[in-house]
Amino acid sequence: MNGPSSRPSLPALTSLRFFAAMHVFLFHLDADHIRTFSGLSFRLQKTGYVGVSLFFVLSGFILTYVHGDREMRPRIFYRERLARIYPAYLFSLLVTAPGFFYICLKLKQMDIPFFAWFKYHVGLCSALVPTLTQAWVPNAALAWNPPAWSLSVEAFFYLLFPFLLPRILRMTTSTLWKLLAFCWMLSLAISLTYVFAKPDGVAHVTDEALNLFWLNAIKFNPLARLPEFLLGACCGALFLRGSFDKRWATPLTITGLASFATVVVASPHLPYPVIHDGLLAPAFAALIVGLALQPAWMAWMQVKPMILLGNASYSLYLLHGFVLGVYFMPMGTLKPFGLVGTAIGIILPIVVAIFVYLFLEEPLRRALRPKLQAPLGERKVAAQPA
């Protein structure tokens, strides 16, 4: 079947994207040495990188949910995805280009560890990032606009999806559960192999290790992150088959949140690569399915302001680093801020993201999307992956 999706809307999953983007945002506040939390709140901030794992699982779920009743035409799907992600992606590259290239080309003598590889491979970065291929080169993944690496990974998922979906939908329910479990075990196996083999020769790595080749490979390579996407797609197929009863809504949601909280609390005692890559994928899947079943007590996630924030989360994810840099470090030096100043610095990227979504991202998506499918099709489902 082609045309608009007949699926009921899942607005809570749109809102969920905002929380995932904010978690990444808070992590980068810490990475920029902008201290805003302490105690358990600080642990939540320090594990903000897992927000990307939530995006990958959610992407697999939503794409399967949206396209499960459509005739899959790769050309139309690719154009639809390009219209969805590239306008805001290109805008983020345009606004971050001056800072990135200025440091790489003009300040080669400066000892900035994060730019150590980029400044000697500017040409390669210039070719990889606009073409959404930077994640395939471990040391180039964070070039230009660092959060954009996950879009490089998503582009690979999109490339595969038209060929994966028919096979996933043909699987038996039992096979889907087995594939789901296998994807999680494979994800853990990749990160645990790194932890025990220590291919970079470092005994203990943290989120501050940015230039380790093999660590970057397991963190950013699309093949290493594919199991999370597939796990989400399996959940989407099971959801379409009615494998999850409405009575599971609250237990699944609470299980997902409790598992997430447990990992956050225990994070200082768990290997960083394992937390980063897929440890929480089943917890995120449980949360996504639970919210998709629409528990009454989570109805606040379906109100219009929350949906707007969810829709703007993609621009927030791509632009928050740039806005943080302009506000907190306008001349490359961290300015001291009090409580009010820090609060403004947190609110400002959200406001910018809403404006970019309303006046750039959404208008260009409508203009660029294929005409064979009515605009209501995707919007009716109301949850697009970042």
How is this fold's topology laid out?
Layout: H1 11-31, H2 39-46, H3 51-67, H4 74-106, H5 122-128, H6 149-170, H7 173-197, H8 213-220, H9 222-240, H10 249-266, H11 272-276, H12 281-292, H13 304-311, H14 313-328, H15 339-368, H16 376-381
Helix pairs in contact: 1-3, 1-13, 1-14, 3-6, 3-9, 3-12, 4-6, 4-14, 4-15, 6-9, 7-9, 9-12, 10-12, 14-15
Short note summarizing the structure:
By secondary structure, the protein is mainly alpha-helical. The protein is 66% helix and 0% strand.
Structure, described:
Residues 373-386 have low confidence and may be disordered. The protein starts with 10 loop residues before the first helix and ends in a 5-residue tail after the last helix. It has 386 residues and is an all-alpha fold. Helix 3 (51-67) crosses helix 6 and helix 6 (149-170) crosses helix 9 (222-240). The protein has one domain (11-381). Helix content is 66%, strand content 0%. It is built from 16 helices and no strands.
Biggest pleated-sheet summary: none
What is the number of domains? 1
Strand composition percent: under 5%
Helicity level, as a percent range?
A: 55-70%
Shape, principal axes of CA atoms: globular
| H/E element order | HHHHHHHHHHHHHHHH
Could you tell me the radius of gyration in angstroms?
20 Å
- Strand tally, please? 0
Separation of the first and last Cα atoms: 25 Å
Structural class label:
mainly alpha
In DSSP terms (H or I, runs of 4 or more residues), the helix count works out at 16
User: Averaged pLDDT, please?
Assistant: 90
Low-pLDDT stretches are 373-386
